[in-house]
Write a structure and sequence with these properties.
By secondary structure, this protein is an alpha/beta fold. It is built from 14 helices and 13 strands. The protein folds into two domains: about 260 residues, Aspartate Aminotransferase, domain 2, CATH 3.40.640.10; about 130 residues, Aspartate Aminotransferase, domain 1, CATH 3.90.1150. It has a seven-stranded mixed β-sheet with strand order 1-9-8-5-4-2-3, sandwiched between helices. Strands 10-11-13-12 form a four-stranded antiparallel β-sheet. A two-stranded antiparallel ribbon has the order 6-7. α2 runs parallel beside α8 and α9 packs parallel to α14. It is globular, with a radius of gyration of 22 Å. The two termini are about 20 Å apart.
């Protein structure tokens, strides 16, 4: 039986050479490879800077923490962040773990992201809009949010905009890539994502102060904020000059985290960035083909919208209200035929046990997110699927749905 995975990663000779280069250079922690990856990724997204971190979750946490210390923003911990209820739980975990309160608005059921109308309605009808500090849209499954309209709303209400672009490497909105529309974008390079490195994250920004602060925060808030340490060259710009001997590597002026990454992930990330355009195109071709072949089931399945600007994380499907089969049944039968599936995350305040304390507050207020969270799932559309794989997926649906 053929096995169709949600994601895949192929180790070619290029990836092997990249790993051996790291071993040969004798440095495993952040160094030249990380700096090289940051430069390449910033250029690709279209921002002045990128900072690599240990994960996408770490990227959001470090970025939000940077806003707290930034003189321009001075975002207060304990304030509210508007975001989506339909996302991988890491988005909301990062908000909560950095001391903010998530507030959820409903989504567009076809593109899965929060709508400007829902954000506007929330802010208009809240008695204390000044309690909100950040607007954090998520480009779920690669679909870019309406960033121009969201930015205008944020400007009117004095909100800082942050993008969770963990699933949208390369997606384009009005000529700009996601991750370049806000104070900072957060990316993940998890193994199943569009650009893969195993475990790694990054923030992208045009703001040199956000970059500087994130560099510090990801290293436990140390005084050092140099992009690459210069001690190997015999000097340190922040070397102590008095008898108090405050070594900048072990002097910490803000509270941070250990969110540094390693040269191995950056080296793999560099190899993948060389293939970014090919990855983008292959995933689009696969989505287009599956849509054409599965169109006959549109009375039962809501297939993903096709858009040449979208870098697809996966192939999302939502069972319609009148579907004669449940999501559980369909996923179970697909898995039995070798087609791997994943549920579409669930609506966090109403369907995730970790946030059950919010269920009563949001019950009935997020109908689109609740429906998609209960009836949505995804299969793979990754770049390593061949024609036989795609046809096998179609045949699997035909066996189940007739």
């Amino acid at each position: 039986m053929r096995k169709i995975a949600v994601g895949d990663f192929r180790i070619s000779e290029e990836e092997k050479r990249a790993i051996f280069e790291v071993l040969d250079q004798g440095r495993l922690s952040e160094g030249r490879k990380v700096a090289q990856f940051e430069q390449i990724f910033a250029e690709y997204i279209g921002t002045r800077y990128a900072v690599a971190l240990s994960s996408g979750t770490a990227a959001i946490m470090a970025g939000l923490s940077a806003l707290v210390h930034h003189d321009k923003y001075r975002v207060s911990r304990g304030s509210k962040i508007i975001t989506t209820p339909l996302t991988y739980i890491a988005t909301v975990n990062a908000i909560v773990q950095t001391g903010f309160e998530p507030v959820f608005v409903d989504i567009d059921p076809e593109t899965f992201h929060i709508t400007p109308e829902a954000v506007e309605e929330l802010l208009k009808n809240t008695p204390n809009p000044d309690h909100f500090s950040v607007l954090l849209p998520v480009h779920l499954m690669g679909y870019p949010c309406a960033m121009d309209r969201l930015n205008k709303i944020a400007e009117r209400y004095n909100l800082v905009v942050v993008e969770d672009s963990a699933q949208a490497h390369g997606s384009i909105y009005q000529g700009k890539r996601t991750g370049s529309w806000s104070s900072f974008g957060a990316f993940s390079f998890y193994i199943a994502h569009n650009i893969q490195a195993g475990e790694m994250g990054a923030i992208t920004t045009d703001d040199p102060e956000i970059r500087r602060l994130v560099m510090k925060i990801k290293a436990n808030g140390r005084l050092c904020d140099c992009p690459v340490c210069t001690r190997s060259k015999g000097y340190c710009p922040k070397e102590p000059t008095d008898e108090e001997d405050h070594d900048p590597r072990f002097t910490h002026d803000i509270i941070g985290y250990n969110f540094k990454t390693m040269e191995f992930q950056a080296a793999l990330g560099i190899t993948q960035m060389k293939k970014a355009d090919w990855i983008f195109k292959r995933r689009q071709e696969n989505v287009r083909y599956l849509n054409e072949r599965l169109k006959k089931y549109e009375e039962v399945l809501r297939l993903p919208l096709f858009d040449e600007r979208v870098s697809y994380l996966a192939y999302p499907i939502v069972l319609k209200q009148e579907a004669p089969i449940t999501r559980y049944q369909l996923r179970h039968e697909l898995e039995q035929l070798g087609v791997e599936t994943r549920p579409l995350f669930g609506s966090i305040p109403t369907q995730q046990p970790a946030y059950s304390f919010l269920k009563e507050e949001y019950q009935g207020k997020l109908p689109n997110a609740d429906f998609v969270g209960k009836n949505g799932f995804y299969i793979g559309c990754h770049q390593y699927l061949n024609q036989e794989d795609l046809d096998y997926i179609v045949e699997a649906f035909e066996k189940i749905l007739g």
